[in-house]
Design brief:
This protein is of the alpha/beta class and 297 residues long. It contains 12 helices and 10 strands. The chain binds beta-D-ribofuranose and calcium ion. Pfam families: IU_nuc_hydro (PF01156).
Length: 297
Amino acid sequence: MDPGHDDALALLVALASLKVKGVTAVCGNQTVDKTARNARRVLDLAHYEEISVHQGADRPLFRPLVTAAHVHGSSGLDGYHFHLRDREKTIPADAQQWLECEFTQEPGDIAWIATGPLTNVAAFLMGHREFVPRIKKLTVMGGALNHGNITPYAEFNFYVDPDAAHWVLAQGIPIQLVGLDVTHKALLAPDALERFVSFGSEIGLMLHDLFAFYFKHEPNAVPQGVPVHDVLAVGAMVHPEFFAWRRVNLTVERCDEKYRGQMTVVSESARAATQVAVDVDVARFFEWMWAMLANGF
Ligand code: BDR
Ligand code: CA
């Protein structure tokens, strides 16, 4: 992940609904030192100090980094002043090694959620093709069948590292792709700010301050609410039945700069490994999200 406001909320919802093994940070919304630090800060504030954070790629596979400071601020998580700052100084830059150890020591199936550019995932699997069949579910926030958000054609995560996105989608991994077609339907209403405060916890105050910032800066924020993209990816991992899916073979544009990161459906096939979300039951998704947060924090 590349926290990132919506990544931070996604991480909390994941903590409350899954057994999280660890976090690899990737560059995207901000530089990787910042996204790793942000993941550490959120985990520590939520009292999940035992979950490790590993710094990963500091640039996309083959291109310079483009960040989203216009959405997430200069820290990548602007809006809240974090006090706990000791452990963030010692985050190891060992995402690739850590993944190798996890895949080696964990004999079972692998479930993986990616809420940033796919650089870490691609770099790891390019060097470890033998692990590809072990991944039984990879849920990705990225792409758009219709309109983009960083350009008219491309979604941000796929735009930042289109080479990684294209490669990962071509590996036959069972992927659930959660793109803008659904994330722009599930808007977090402005009254969320008061609901966060009503948790009566420091995490609630953090979410309030972070989302007060995000409501002002997310380009697709409207009076009804703001998209919380990455949280939908966690929702899809835990409750795929909240979504309507299409099985498709996809490509991602890497050559024409104008269309860079654009996702195109090559064919629809019952045998395709990738499922793309085309609709979401917004009410059920938010009911679940709030229940998870209320229980967990
Ligand atoms: C994606 O881009 C980032 O800014 C968000 O965190 C999300 O992962 C949405 O296009
Ligand atoms: Ca993200």
